[in-house]
Amino acid sequence: MVSPGNMKKVLVIDDEPFILMMIEAKLSEAGLNVLTLREGRDALSFIRGELPDLVILDWMMPGLSGIELCRMVKEDPELSHIPIFLLTAKGQDADKEAAFESGASLYITKPFSPKALLKMVNDAIGGQ
Amino acid sequence: MDSSSLPYTTKDFELTIRELSDTYEELSLLYRLPEILSGMGVDEIAQQVVEEAITTLDVKTAALLLYDEDGRKLCTKAFRGRWDKSTIPFGDNSVIWDAVEGKKPLAFCKLPETDQVDFAPSGSPVLVCPLIGKEKLIGAMVLADRESQAEFYSNDIQLMMAIASHAALTIENALLYKELEDFLLFAIRSLVKALEASSEWTAGHTERVTEYAIAIGTIMGLTEKQIERLKVCSLLHDIGKIAISKDILDKPDNLTPEEIREVQRHSMIGAEILGGFKQLQDVISGIKYHHEHWDGSDSFMGLKGEDIPLMSRILAVADTFDAMTSDRPYRKRKAREETIREILSLAGRQFDPAVVDAFRKWISRQHPVSSP
């Protein structure tokens, strides 16, 4: 049994509850410690407090957009090492460049395969 | 909210999320499928669809079958797992034929004894989906041997039908495309035959050059698509000779420099004849420059090095090899060994050294020759 202290910590921020639940179910099933937030506001201080191993961010959120938050994380020397996955709805592909410029390490289009997402998470943080 | 007032347990809730997650998985597949399959040939599409079915429906055995031409048997196009049939004649493995003939998917949690199949362990679930294209029924997909041993539920069948109908349309399109392509190749070959019939000296030249060019291109690691283009280019490379005077082409003596120039014009004329084919622009360039010299010396159109299209550079070697090893009106063919030495010695001058290198490898695979 892995103690929660040793578990890799993944923070998921999305305003769609279904996406949050689904990612949480898939990742925790695989033995990851999953934290969730419904919006980007206050997320930065939350990240500072929790220091997750990876952040999965929805691009389009009320309040603070995923890409702005991504930029803020990448500009913070204490946090800039944390890999970030950006989620976006299909059809917004043109912004792919902006996503990478903001420092995101992956750009994932919805609908995505939860199985594939789990694999990408494990590849990024060296899980099982 | 007080969840105890709801008639659902946490367990229900978790199950629902898992089911939604599965649905989302499927949805993402249906979004990806058109992108994955676009531009593929029939074999690739079939294999890809089988792989996707295996992962998405968690089965160990999957096969995609297409009708043969007379519609009396199904032929395996792609498979994975416990599948050892190349064809299924009408009536064999009747559960498959029932689904195909009925144009409806059939799922069995346990096959009836009378409908024995030999590709799934007895008593294990089997799912058969017909492949229905826009025009007609084209075949079927068979899934068996589920990882979880669970039966196929209605959502599995629905998902499989969605995959199958997309696969069927894409395969149907690819088959039509292939038919058009075959038609084009046939038309090209007829054109070449017309050309060759007009001069006994060049009979068979085109087919041989094509064979040599493809062999060289394959050794150079060209993609399947590039090889296809190279084939068309080689078949058409001499088409411009139609416009060159027979007196010169069949002249029994050595050609004068002017006559050589005249003969060389055939590459440009060929490019002009075909100029209207928008789809053949790369092929046309390949034909136009196939008499250019790698080092630029004596180049007819003034190109050199890698400015000369790769197809032209390959064609140059293949064409020369055949021309020198065949009889021509003005000279007898040279000995094969002598020709090979001459071509090797022209690497870096008349020919691209990389092409000559591939040529050398190809030759030594057939009959090892002593190096010059």
Count of DSSP-assigned helices of chain A: 5
**Structural class of the helices, strands and pairings of chain A?**
alpha/beta
Task: Examine the coordinates and then state which fold CATH places here, giving the name of the CATH topology of the largest domain in chain B.
Answer: Beta-Lactamase
Strand content of chain B: 5-15%
**pLDDT < 50 runs, ≥5 residues of chain B:** none
Main sheet summary of chain A: 5 strands, parallel
Overall residue-averaged pLDDT value of chain A? 87
Describe what this molecule looks like in 3D.
The complex is a heterodimer of chains A (128) and B (372). Chain A has 128 residues and is α/β, with parallel strands linked by helices. Chain A has one domain: Response regulator (Rossmann fold), CATH 3.40.50. Chain A is 38% helix and 20% strand. Chain A has helices at residues 17-29, 43-50, 66-75, 96-101, 114-125; strands at 9-13, 33-37, 54-58, 84-89, 106-110. In chain A, helix 1 packs across helix 5. In chain A, 34% of the residues are buried. The model of chain A has no long low-confidence stretch (mean pLDDT 87). With 372 residues, chain B is α+β, with helices and mostly antiparallel strands. Chain B folds into 2 domains: 3-176, 2-Layer Sandwich (Beta-Lactamase); 198-366, Hypothetical protein af1432 (Orthogonal Bundle), CATH 1.10.3210. Chain B is built from 13 helices and 6 strands. A 6-stranded antiparallel sheet of chain B has the order 3-2-1-6-5-4, sandwiched between helices. The termini of chain B are far apart. The model of chain B has no long low-confidence stretch (mean pLDDT 85). Classes of the chains: A alpha/beta (128), B alpha+beta (372). Chain A binds chain B through residues 18, 21-22, 25-26, 90, 111-116, and chain B through 14, 17-18, 20-21, 24-25, 27-29, 31-32, 55.
Helix-strand layout with pairing:
The complex is a heterodimer of chains A (128) and B (372).
Chain A: E1 9-13, H1 17-29, E2 33-37, H2 43-50, E3 54-58, H3 66-75, E4 84-89, H4 96-101, E5 106-110, H5 114-125
Parallel strand pairs in A: 1-2, 1-3, 3-4, 4-5
Helix pairs in contact in A: 1-5
Chain B: H1 10-37, H2 42-57, E1 59-67, E2 73-80, E3 87-89, H3 94-102, E4 106-108, E5 126-132, E6 137-146, H4 154-197, H5 205-219, H6 224-236, H7 246-249, H8 257-264, H9 266-274, H10 281-288, H11 310-324, H12 336-345, H13 353-366
Antiparallel strand pairs in B: 1-2, 1-6, 2-3, 4-5, 5-6
